[in-house]
Specification:
Elements: H1 3-8, H2 16-30, H3 35-44, H4 51-71, H5 78-89, E1 96-102, E2 108-116, H6 126-135, E3 140-146, H7 156-172, E4 175-183, E5 186-189
């Protein structure tokens, strides 16, 4: 694509391949190896001569972010969430408290470790959980923690924190969808077992 063509066509209306052509030509012309380096250069405003390149990069990022939002997994059913987290977190040697933050469409926004504890406990407070949830702009959350012992039934502390999280979520307008306990490749959904 020539510079003349670029000037005739608004960057916002270009297809992804056209945007990539612009970015690739900038990469070659400026001796930059990666798009990340291109972004760093853009921020420093040292290697870009044309505002068209900047617009192309911004438009490309906007398009990529929109696709990432649509590609986020919808892990809401106890089976889907349980299979996902038990595969990922069952083998941990210390208790960890994990937060899955969801948007209004119940797509995962973020997956965060809120607390790393000891062999048999992870201390977590509602403020810790909701600081992360609010920073993620979460509409709903699912909490998970592992029991390295493999014991799945919730402890008194598990029931207590779940109750406190549910109350705090109601006040803040962030729904607690479920609380999972995982261990030895298995899981327990407190909601599914009517413990929530």
């Amino acid at each position: 694509m020539t510079k003349k063509t670029i000037q005739l066509k608004e960057v916002g209306y270009m297809c992804k391949n056209e945007l990539l052509d612009i970015l690739n030509s900038e990469l070659k012309a400026k001796g930059v190896q990666t798009v990340e380096q291109l972004f760093t250069s853009l921020k420093k405003n040292k290697t870009f001569d044309s505002s068209t390149s900047k617009k192309a990069y911004v438009e490309f990022l906007r398009d990529e972010l929109a696709h990432q939002v649509l590609d986020r997994p919808k892990l809401v059913s106890p089976t889907d969430v349980g299979n996902y987290i038990s595969a990922k977190y069952s083998e941990l040697k210390k208790e960890e408290f994990i937060l899955l933050s969801y948007d209004n469409s119940n797509r995962i926004i973020s997956e965060d470790i809120v607390s790393i504890g000891t062999l048999d406990k992870a201390i977590v407070e509602p403020r810790d959980v909701f600081n992360v949830a609010l920073a993620n702009n979460a509409a709903n959350i699912i909490c998970c923690h592992n029991h390295p012992s493999g014991q799945l039934y919730p402890s008194d502390a598990d029931f207590n924190i779940t109750k406190r999280l549910s109350k705090a979520g109601n006040v803040l307008g962030v729904g607690l969808l479920d609380h999972f306990i995982i261990g030895n490749g298995r899981y327990l959904s407190m909601k599914e077992n009517e413990l929530l």
